[in-house]
């Protein structure tokens, strides 16, 4: 394959105008959410928690859903379509026979792919007349993306932020405040779900599951306030398919096609975003593509048990059929904090269960991952977010394996965000200040 371009831009008039909903194309129907045996019905409560249009999309049987013109404008303003890069310098450095391509979700106003669903969700929330938003955030990328999106449509936002991260990411905290968001460390004394844990231990490190409980409880207390979730759910993955759909068109321009698709996986939104359009090609057109999710050994949720579990700590959500480590599990902190979640998006859980997704879990010291990410930065120039570093390392490892076997694979990977606000993490793991 001759190299025509190093950077593949997608002209604005060729941008995708619909998102891809994989639900009708799955190898078997997705098990629906379910209520636990006792307590109030969580499913009946969903309309109080989720934006109407998002709830509709969550169960849609339409393969293609129009991206509203207003959301297309917001996407354009946020820099979409984003370029696809051929990692020429990295290939040379690794001396791999593979062709490596990466999608540049780091070209985002707040630093990650999360703006793709944040912009869609605030658009619908505004249209449906909600006056306030609430959410949770773990690594802080979702909180920042939503703070940005909410400020563009002028909706006030309250964020519950996992304390172990809140405590050290001061710059990201200020970034959210700069966009006008109100931010509480979680567990907080603002909600019942948080208060009990907070009283027992005011320095409780928190978890994504606890923060979700706080955000939902807050939204339930006021009918003009709506909750938003940045990963896991079907509609979130669908909004993120904009990543893979652009990439498919860019591969047409490059006259190439991936053999392997790789990304990091926390709840599954960026992995789903890049992978699902290609998964559609595999399911419908029989394309032979391998999918690999890069994870941490502190949170190998994709290898968890496939069963019904709650999405949050306080059991306020319906139960979802997913690969899960258990909603009460405590996970050790890592710098790639956005990968620490107990469950996996139900769509990806089903595909994993059916054998369509492979996974790699990297050691908790994160040394290899950060070393590979810095080699990527030294050759390609972009600094990946700690979470994205897992996907980058996994793609590089795959390319190095091919060096041994001589296979000339085409490897596509997603760089889900940039690491400008995470130098502290790079410093701690790679000892840059020593
Ligand atoms: C949140 C985040 C992740 C992990 O979440 P997913 O829903 O699995 O994508 C990965 N990378 C970045 C940059 C993030 O902000």
Describe this protein's structure:
The chain is of the alpha/beta class. The chain has a domain at 3-16 and 67-112 and 235-430: Rossmann fold. The chain is built from 16 helices and 15 strands. The chain has helices at 46-49, 52-58, 69-77, 88-94, 115-127, 141-152, 163-166, 170-178, 192-200, 208-220, 234-254, 269-285, 346-353, 367-380, 386-405, 423-430; strands at 7-8, 18-20, 64-66, 84-86, 99-104, 132-137, 157-162, 182-186, 225-227, 260-264, 290-296, 305-310, 319-324, 358-362, 410-415. The strands form four sheets. The chain has a seven-stranded mixed sheet with strand order 1-4-5-15-10-11-14, sandwiched between helices. It has a four-stranded parallel sheet with strand order 8-7-6-9, sandwiched between helices. Strands 2-3 form a two-stranded antiparallel sheet. β10 (260-264), α12 and β11 (290-296) form a beta-alpha-beta unit. The protein is globular, with a radius of gyration of 20 Å. The relative contact order is 0.16. The chain binds pyridoxal-5'-phosphate. Pyridoxal-5'-phosphate (PLP) binds at residues 112, 114, 139, 141-142, 231, 264-271, 338-339, 385, 387-388, 416-417.
């Amino acid at each position: 394959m001759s190299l025509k371009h190093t950077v593949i831009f997608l002209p604005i008039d060729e941008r995708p105008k619909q998102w891809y909903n994989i639900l009708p194309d799955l190898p078997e129907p997705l098990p629906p959410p379910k209520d636990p045996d006792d307590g109030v019905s969580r499913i009946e409560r969903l309309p109080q928690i989720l934006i109407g249009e998002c709830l509709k999309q969550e169960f849609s049987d339409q393969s293609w859903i129009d991206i509203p013109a207003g959301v297309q404008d917001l996407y354009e303003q946020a820099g979409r379509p984003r370029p696809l890069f051929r990692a020429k310098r990295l290939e040379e450095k690794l001396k791999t026979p593979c062709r490596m391509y990466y999608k540049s979700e780091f070209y985002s106003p707040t630093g990650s792919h999360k703006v793709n669903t944040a912009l869609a969700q605030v658009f619908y929330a505004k249209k449906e007349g909600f006056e306030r938003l609430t959410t949770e955030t773990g690594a802080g990328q979702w909180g920042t993306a939503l703070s940005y999106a909410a400020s563009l449509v002028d909706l006030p936002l309250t964020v519950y932020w996992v304390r172990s991260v809140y405590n050290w990411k001061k710059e990201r905290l200020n970034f959210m405040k700069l966009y006008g968001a109100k931010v509480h460390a979680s567990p907080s004394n603002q909600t019942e779900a948080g208060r009990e844990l907070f009283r027992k231990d005011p320095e409780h490190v928190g978890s994504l599951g606890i923060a979700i409980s706080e955000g939902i409880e807050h939204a339930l207390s006021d009918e003009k306030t709506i909750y938003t979730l940045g990963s896991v759910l079907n509609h979130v993955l669908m909004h993120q398919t904009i990543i893979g759909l652009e990439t498919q068109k860019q591969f047409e321009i490059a006259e190439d096609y991936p053999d392997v698709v790789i990304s990091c996986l926390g709840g599954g939104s960026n992995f789903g975003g890049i992978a699902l359009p290609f998964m559609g090609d595999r399911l419908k057109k029989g394309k032979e593509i391998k999918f690999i999710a890069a994870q941490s050994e502190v949170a190998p949720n994709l290898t968890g048990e496939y069963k019904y579990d709650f999405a949050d700590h306080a059991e306020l959500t319906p139960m979802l059929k997913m690969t899960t480590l258990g909603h009460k599990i405590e996970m050790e902190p890592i710098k790639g904090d956005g990968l620490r979640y107990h469950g996996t998006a139900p769509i990806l859980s089903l595909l994993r269960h059916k054998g369509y997704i492979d996974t790699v879990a990297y050691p908790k010291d994160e040394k290899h991952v950060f070393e590979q990410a810095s080699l990527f930065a030294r050759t390609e120039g972009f600094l990946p977010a700690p979470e994205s570093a897992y996907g980058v390392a996994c793609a590089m490892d795959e390319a190095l394996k091919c060096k041994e076997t001589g296979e000339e694979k085409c490897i596509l990977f997603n760089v889900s965000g940039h690491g400008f606000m995470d130098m502290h993490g790079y410093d701690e793991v790679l000892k840059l200040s020593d």
